[in-house]
Write a structure and sequence with these properties.
Two copies of one chain form a homodimer.
Chain A: H1 8-19, E1 22-23, H2 24-33, H3 43-55, E2 59-63, E3 73-77, H4 79-90, H5 95-100, H6 102-110, H7 118-144, H8 153-177
Antiparallel strand pairs in A: 1-3, 2-3
Helix pairs in contact in A: 1-3, 1-4, 2-3, 7-8
Chain B binds a DNA duplex (28 and 28 nucleotides) through helix 2 and helix 3.
Chain lengths: 189, 189
DNA sequence: CCCCCCATGTAACATGTTACATGATTGA
DNA sequence: TCAATCATGTAACATGTTACATGGGGGG
């Protein structure tokens, strides 16, 4: 048996199934058509992943009217699956997440809707901003140690990374405003 | 024999070796310490990758004074390796690159220094800007089709993607100015 | 009737992860 | 001498990629 934590692909499937039950083919179409999640849409990755999630009890499948071979199989998330998803999105945002797994972070955020309370989204965005800030500072430090002579490619690539981190930070701060409990307390205008 | 094109990790090793010959351990240290390239620094990935590159003739290795077991092995890029690297960085920037492989793009750019003429960097940045622009437009279109009601997470995640693409575009346009052949032609001030 | 899209799956393969094993060198 | 760091590698395993195989249903 396989007790590892789910892959990113598996979490993506779980999150999509949580929005709406789908067939394997429908999952594949989402990965092909959607610009959001950058996962392979090949049958060789999707179907085995769905089978694994089924075996672990995070998804369950029901065949449609079944007298054909190759029955159409619809996957629905189980309560255990919902819990796994909730635990995943609610994890603390770490510096490592920001450095190594920014896509996973955005995937987590995008699955929060309807799954967790707004204060979880709020905490997520606050932690994200903090970690992005710290990372930006370490990048700046790193850059200042780079040689000013020679080809500028290294420094420029560095600056691309920095610009990226900063834009994400700006985004997080703006997004946060939509989740903060309303600022104006009921008294006064 | 394995004739596939090199992995991203292998290109990263090739590029680093092109800057300076290193031991396997030194490559690992770079991946641990550098914020730029997000690759695994585990021996289980690095050493086999170096062996593959050696077998394919893109790297060659020389052992230091060798009467010990476990000789220290220094990898140097071959002329064939340099050619492979040059071909890789010089490829046309496609929409798919921008959507699915932005990190690879930045890696390609950062290895251009000292490897190709400035007009290659120039072309790269121009193509990059064009493709980013097209991608941004398709993202905007996609976003405008999203539901305005319900949890805002999806729309926000979308906007994060957009902000990211736009910041990269701005970067590309700024970087381009450093590679454009000097605007003022020799006549007049 | 044929082709395309819907739909599900498997097999071979390469890569990367994790954990382990080993040995050399350097400084406290 | 002991520990840390330098240094190289392998084995088991899971995942993902590519290519292939199969079959139903609808439209031209």
């Amino acid at each position: 048996m396989n007790d590892r934590r789910p892959t990113l692909l598996e979490y993506a499937l779980l999150g999509l199934a949580n929005n709406q039950p789908r067939t394997g083919y429908a999952f594949r179409k989402v990965f092909e058509a959607t610009p959001m999640a950058h996962y392979s849409s090949s049958p060789g990755s999707i179907y085995p992943a769905l089978q694994r999630l089924d075996e672990r009890g995070l998804l369950e499948s029901s065949v449609g009217d079944g007298d054909t071979l190759r029955p159409k199989r619809v996957y629905t998330v189980t309560s255990e699956g919902v819990e796994a998803l909730r635990a995943w999105v609610s994890q603390r945002v770490t510096r490592e997440d920001v450095i190594w797994r920014p896509r996973e972070l955005m995937l987590r955020f995008s699955f929060m809707g309807g799954l967790v309370d707004d204060d979880v989204s709020c905490t997520f965005l606050e932690q994200l901003a903090v970690e992005l800030d710290g990372y930006a500072r370490s990048l700046e430090e790193y850059r200042s140690a780079m040689p000013g002579h020679g080809p500028p490619h290294g420094v420029l690539a560095m600056e691309a990374g920095l610009a990226n981190v900063r834009s994400m930070k700006t985004w997080a701060k703006n997004a946060l405003r939509q989740f903060l409990p309303s600022q104006r307390s009921d008294g006064r205008g």
